[in-house]
Amino acid sequence: MSKRRVGVVMGGTSGEREVSLRSGAAVADALEAAGHEVVRVVLADGEDPGRALARARIDVAFLALHGRLGEDGCMQGMCELYGIPYTGSGVLASALAMDKLKAKELFRLHNVPTPPYYCVSAGYDPADLREIHGSFGFPVIVKPRGEGSSLGVAKASSHEELEQALARALELDEVAIVERFVAGIEVNVGVLDGRVLGAIEIVPRSGIYDYEAKYTPGMTEYFMPARLPSTRYRGVLNLAERAVRALGCTGAARVDLLVTEGHNEYVLEVNTLPGMTETSLLPKIARAAGYDFPQLCEAILASARLHTPGARKRPAPSTAVVHEVGTLVEPVAFRRVAG
């Protein structure tokens, strides 16, 4: 492919900034070694991302951002407005995948199994928690509605632990998801341009794959391919493909699933901008499928495009005005969804 001026966009303001910086550095090094002209576009806290893109004067954006404002459709929308082709999913698919509530609703609509859940909004009265929780049972997993990288995720086995977990999750988001705990093997599936690459098994020593387990060396064991019978392995790959289609994701993606002893599989979420350090899960899966890290970066870059119908390349303006947009949160408090 022709060598374009590639902007590797990294950093940002989310709780996953440090992981993004590591992903971006690894990608930039690989693309430079392959002969690309690479610009490291590091988004700093409080910086206007439009101006950062304008200064870089790039032909294509390799998005190595994670979390809010980078993975949730915001940066994708800015690239669409400026006419800069970018890697990963489009605006809508990115936003849907990042919003755990909307993703679950679409999974259910498309008959993609996902653990039962309900939602609690900020400002709820803890005195009502027992009534809200009702007969949902324990243990449960509590997570913020719109965070990634397992930030704010906790397991609760009692009403007291549930109240504490909700307090922590609601510090990060205005809505928390309370999800039924499903005992099973955690499996991640890599997908590249609609092609399922394979599945890796994750065994966290703590029993829960939280932020610490993900990013602390020695806290988690990995088995590639996942230790599943061949029929179940194929079923997991098929389910991951269905989850990606349900959300309309494109480019590289990682699907997180649970596989139970009772021959049931559940989709937890789809990650539209997976980690891209050389030890991240997607590169591990891709390596087993025949892609070394530079080849994976090249394949992802080759898929960069604009998603808006009829969009065409336009130079980014020298200055950009970014309007602050308020967050609209649906009245989803106390809502329960059956399995």
Description:
This protein has eleven helices and 13 strands. With about 350 residues, the protein is an alpha+beta fold. Among the domains are: about 80 residues, Dna Ligase, domain 1 (2-Layer Sandwich), CATH 3.30.1490; about 110 residues, ATP-grasp fold, B domain (D-amino Acid Aminotransferase, Chain A, domain 1, 2-Layer Sandwich). The chain has a five-stranded antiparallel sheet, covered by helices on one side. Helix 1 crosses helix 11. The longest helix is centred in the C-terminal third of the chain and has 18 residues. It starts with a strand and ends with a strand.
Layout: helices, strands, pairs:
Elements: E1 5-11, H1 17-33, E2 37-43, H2 49-56, E3 60-63, H3 74-82, H4 91-98, H5 100-109, E4 117-121, H6 129-133, E5 140-144, E6 154-156, H7 159-170, E7 175-180, E8 185-192, E9 195-204, H8 211-215, E10 220-223, H9 230-247, E11 252-259, E12 265-271, H10 281-288, H11 293-302, E13 335-337
Parallel strand pairs: 1-2, 1-3
Antiparallel strand pairs: 4-7, 4-13, 5-6, 5-7, 8-9, 8-11, 9-10, 11-12
Structure characteristics:
D-amino Acid Aminotransferase, Chain A, domain 1, 5-stranded antiparallel sheet, 339 residues, alpha+beta, Dna Ligase, domain 1
Shape annotation: globular
Which CATH class of the domain at 183-296? Alpha Beta
pLDDT averaged over residues: 88
CATH topology (level 3) name of the domain at 183-296: D-amino Acid Aminotransferase, Chain A, domain 1
Structural class: alpha+beta
Order of helices and strands: EHEHEHHHEHEEHEEEHEHEEHHE
How are the strands ordered across the major sheet? 6-5-7-4-13
Largest sheet: 5 strands, antiparallel
Beta-sheet strand percentage? 15-25%
Distance between the termini: 47 Å
Number of distinct beta strands: 13
CATH architecture of the domain at 183-296: 2-Layer Sandwich
Computed CA radius of gyration, to the nearest angstrom: 20 Å
- So what's the oligomer here? single chain
User: Roughly what percent helix?
Assistant: 25-40%
